[in-house]
Amino acid sequence: MLRMMVVRFFTSLLVILGSLVLVFCIVYLLPGDPAMTILDPASATPEMIAELRHQLGVDRPFHIQFASYVTQMLQGDFGKSLINSEPVLPKILQHFPATLALTLASSVISATIGVLLGVLSAIHRNKAIDIAARIVGLFGISMPTFWSGILLILIFSIYLGWFPAMGSDGWQTLVLPALTLGIVGAGFIVRMVRNSMLEVINEQFIVTLRAKGISEKLVMYRHALRNALIPALTMIGVLMGEMMAGTVVIETVFSRQGIGRVISDALMAKDLPVVQGVVFFSAIVYVCINWLVDVSYSSIDPRVRRAQ
């Protein structure tokens, strides 16, 4: 167990380093001049532009800029906003709890609905509940989040008045955004769990357990489900990262203050240090989530423990 955790940890560090290089290269190759984002193009003189470019360090060679960027990031300095000179990292940490709450709530909804419907769909194959579960899965996968979010606002906020349509204060404002993202994730998990359960049900050890006279419920929910959840656990870990990326749209639709809204506003204002900081911070969170998922395999699958 310890050896696997160490190996995964160093692998995760390599992924984070790769994301750091990728983020810097993408921003470096983008067209535009950061100095012109700060200065007024109508009144800026060539001398003012050159002086500001020197202060920002964008007039230096690529390798020097990259070395400086990596050094700053490793020291926890994500730079400053070009718009208001506000430090990027404190701004991210200020808005991250709202995004984290939305991601966790969406993941809980996805996992609960997806696993429940997936298991019922596999056990009652080709029956009414199976057809209904597959329709729910297809709806979740096919429906764009911005459209389903607007639809939920119309139904539960405008017509029924159950939940507020906008804001990020209190659990009531979290329900509709989390449900919007959760439905999407549930669609993928339903199909994954259903297919996994159908494969496990036909395994030889399930036939042996039934032959020993063990009750069908115990066979399904203790033995079959435990093995079927292994690929679903991977899917949940991946979906958490995708849900965090999906908050860019959801936080805009529901006017929530999170890092998705921060990067959306930064892209509109061409505030590149904020964009770099949010993308790199999100990459770190995504890698940490997948590291925890990998480590948790040993507690679910005994074959992983024996291999260690």
What does this structure look like?
The structure is a single chain. The chain is mainly alpha-helical. Helix content is 80%, strand content 0%. It has 13 helices and no strands. The chain has helices spanning 2-29, 34-38, 46-56, 62-74, 88-123, 128-142, 145-159, 172-201, 204-211, 216-253, 259-269, 272-300, 302-307. The longest helix has 38 residues, at 216-253. It is globular and about 85 Å long. The chain starts with a helix and ends with a helix. Pfam families: BPD_transp_1, BPD_transp_1_N.
Kindly name the structural category: mainly alpha
Strand content: under 5%
Tally of alpha and pi helices: 13
The 3D shape can be described as globular
Radius of gyration: 24 Å
Give the number of DSSP strands: 0
Distance between the termini: 6 Å
Query: Whole-number average pLDDT?
Result: 76
Keywords: Cell membrane, Membrane, Transmembrane, Transmembrane helix, Transport
Family: Belongs to the binding-protein-dependent transport system permease family.
Membrane topology: Multi-pass membrane protein
Organism: Paenibacillus eucommiae
